[in-house]
Amino acid sequence: MSLIKWVDFQILGDERGSLVALETDRAVPFEIKRVYYIYRTAENVSRGFHAHRNLKQVAICVAGRCRMVIDNGYVREDTWLDCPTKGLLIESMVWREMHDFSPDCVLLVLASEHFDESDYIRNYETFLEAATQ
Ligand code: TYD
C-alpha cells in the first residue's frame, strides 16, 4: 500500500480566480494547531530529514514545487508537491525529506500539534529502530 496519501481541497473559484479554505476536521483530518511555511529556499538545499513521534501534518505546495520523500521504515516513496489544491498527509512516525525546491516554492504545512522539539527524531538509525520494532 502506498504511503502517499493526498487530501483534495475544493476550489472556491470564480471569474476572479481561485480560493481554497482549509478547516479542521473538514478538508484537514485533524485539529490544526500550527501553520508554518517554507519559502525562498536556497538553491540545492534539502530540508526535513526527521520524523515525528506524534505529530501529523498536511503539506501543500501553494506556489512552485518541491519533491517530498516519505519513508515509514519499510517503504520509501517520493512525489512532487506542485498543486495548491492537494495536500500530502504525513502521519506520525514517517521520515520526511524535501528536495528540489523551485525558487518560487512556498510550502505550507498544517500541523496537529504545537512546536515541540522532543517530538522530533532527527537520526535516521534511531527512527528505523523505533519504526520497525
Ligand atoms: P525544522 O523542522 O528542522 O525544519 P526542516 O525540517 O524544514 O528542515 O525547523 C527549523 C528550525 O525552525 C528549528 O530550529 C526549529 C524551528 N521551528 C520552530 O521554532 N517552529 C516550528 O513550527 C518549526 C516547523 C520549526
Describe the protein's architecture and organization.
InterPro entries: QdtA_cupin_dom, RmlC-like_jellyroll, RmlC_Cupin_sf. The protein is mostly beta strands. It has a single domain, classed as Sandwich (Jelly Rolls). It is built from 1 helix and 10 strands. A 5-stranded antiparallel sheet has the order 1-7-4-9-2, with no helix packed on it. The protein is globular. The mean pLDDT is 97. The site of thymidine-5'-diphosphate has 7 residues, from strand 2 and strand 3.
Core attributes:
133 residues, mainly beta, Jelly Rolls, five-stranded antiparallel beta sheet, 1 helix, 10 strands, binds thymidine-5'-diphosphate
Briefly, what is this?
Residues 4-130 form the Sugar 3,4-ketoisomerase QdtA cupin domain. The protein has 133 residues and is mainly beta.
Write the layout of secondary structure elements.
Elements: E1 5-8, E2 34-39, E3 47-52, E4 57-63, E5 66-71, E6 76-81, E7 86-90, E8 95-99, E9 106-111, E10 120-121, H1 124-131
Antiparallel strand pairs: 1-7, 2-9, 3-8, 3-10, 4-7, 4-9, 5-6, 5-8
Bound molecules: thymidine-5'-diphosphate (TYD).
Organism: Pseudomonas paracarnis
Domain Sugar 3,4-ketoisomerase QdtA cupin: 4-130
Protein name: FdtA/QdtA family cupin domain-containing protein
Number of domains: 1
> What is the assigned CATH homologous superfamily?
Jelly Rolls
CATH topology: Jelly Rolls
CATH level-1 class: Mainly Beta
Main pleated-sheet profile: 5 strands, antiparallel
The overall average pLDDT, rounded, is 97
Relative strand content: 35-45%
Helix residue percentage: under 10%
Query: Cα-atom Rg, whole angstroms?
Result: 15 Å
Low-confidence stretches: none
Name given to the CATH architecture: Sandwich
Q: Output the structural class.
A: mainly beta
Distance between the termini: 20 Å
- Which ligands occur here? thymidine-5'-diphosphate
Strand order in the largest sheet: 1-7-4-9-2
Task: Tell how many strands the DSSP assignment holds.
Answer: 10
Q: Overall 3D geometry?
A: globular
Total number of helical segments? 1
Q: Write the element-wise H/E pattern from the N-terminal end onward.
A: EEEEEEEEEEH
Pfam family, one: FdtA
InterPro entries: QdtA_cupin_dom (IPR008894), RmlC-like_jellyroll (IPR014710), RmlC_Cupin_sf (IPR011051)
Protein name: FdtA/QdtA family cupin domain-containing protein
Domain Sugar 3,4-ketoisomerase QdtA cupin: 4-130
